[in-house]
Amino acid sequence: MLLSKSCVYGLRATLLLASYQNGGYTSIKDLSNKLDISFHFLTKILQQLTAAELLESMKGPKGGVRLSGESSDITLREVVIAIDGPDIFTECVLGLPGCGSEKPCPMHAMWAETRDDIEQMLQTTSLEDMSKEGMEQDLRITADGHFVWGEP
Amino acid sequence: MLLSKSCVYGLRATLLLASYQNGGYTSIKDLSNKLDISFHFLTKILQQLTAAELLESMKGPKGGVRLSGESSDITLREVVIAIDGPDIFTECVLGLPGCGSEKPCPMHAMWAETRDDIEQMLQTTSLEDMSKEGMEQDLRITADGHFVWGEP
DNA sequence: ACTATTTAAGAGTAATATGTCTTAAATATA
DNA sequence: TATATTTAAGACATATTACTCTTAAATAGT
Ligand code: FES
Ligand code: FES
């Protein structure tokens, strides 16, 4: 898998949050229910996003998490890097150290281009872009889709 | 990581084998030494490639493995599928079941295209292509490169 | 026939990723 | 202040991947 499960869960949660464009806090319990993700596991993942300042959190009743800024200002790339780290955009497809150095691997030419394409795609796509598409075209971010876009 | 370590090891080994265009058997011990891969682990991986009929093996002294056909006839895609399975070319980037069905995920449009590009690249690149490039441009398939292309 | 060499097969171990549970700290509300 | 609710943090458990070790089977050479 290109992205870890943690990363996928992080994307699902931030996409759903992005569709709640009310600026209020949403409890992780609520997110985990809607997205069918283990509450404690999702909590850990969102903590990483909070540490990366992509989310803001508040404890206590009425607490929860919310996007730290406009959903149009947060890119998929930022979410991916916050969880899986930046290396996936620089690593050799054959796992060799120092990809792109003076002595690359035979697959470097083809891979580096594709890898940059992926990074570019994620870089130029905001949470708003994806959540809007999800809403407008009634797309899925869970297996069975028993959540509703834009309804906190 | 896009490819598992097993898959990467399989690619390294088949690329090196492809540069030995003599049709003889090369012992796995020799490959594991040259490629800095655990002998027993590499053996298991190459067994998968033998089962998939990409390699032929022979036991006993003078035994070993060799490509089952011309290196120009074996694609990187075949090696990848034999080890990591075909799913990486059909899976949803968000891990949802049934990618591409009537209700895809918001990232489907961007991902499906990139995923197909990757498959196409691997499909249209043969072991010969890569090993030739490796030889001609003195490229790496190990961390320190203390192997020599084309020298069994 | 015997021995050395090599792949085949499977059990066992270690490392990492994924998921669960418990306790602590913060905060809103009564 | 007291209580309920919620995130934070870390220990713990399970699953998957990566790797190791042992034994069996086949084959070439003596
Ligand atoms: S060196 Fe292998 S992909 Fe860059
Ligand atoms: S449904 Fe998600 S990538 Fe196809």
Q: Secondary structure elements and their pairing?
A:
The structure is a homodimer of 152-residue chains.
Chain A: H1 5-19, H2 28-35, H3 39-51, E1 55-58, E2 64-67, H4 76-84, H5 108-123, H6 127-136
Antiparallel strand pairs in A: 1-2
Helix pairs in contact in A: 1-3, 1-4, 1-6, 2-3
The structure holds a DNA duplex (30 and 30 nucleotides).
Summary?
The first copy, chain A, has 152 residues and is mainly alpha-helical. Chain A has helices at 5-19, 28-35, 39-51, 76-84, 108-123, 127-136; strands at residues 55-58, 64-67. The radius of gyration of chain A is 17 Å and the shape is elongated.
What would you note in describing this structure?
Chain A has 152 residues and is mostly helical. The first copy, chain A, has a domain at 5-85 and 126-137: Arc Repressor Mutant, subunit A, CATH 1.10.10. Helices cover 47% and strands 5% of the residues of chain A. Chain A has six helices and two strands; from the N terminus they run H-H-H-E-E-H-H-H. Chain A has helices spanning 5-19, 28-35, 39-51, 76-84, 108-123, 127-136, and strands spanning 55-58, 64-67. Chains A and B meet through helix 1, helix 5 and helix 6 of A and helix 1, helix 5 and helix 6 of B. Chain A binds a DNA duplex (30 and 30 nucleotides) through residues 4-6, 25, 27-29, 38-41, 43-44, 46-47, 50, 57-65.
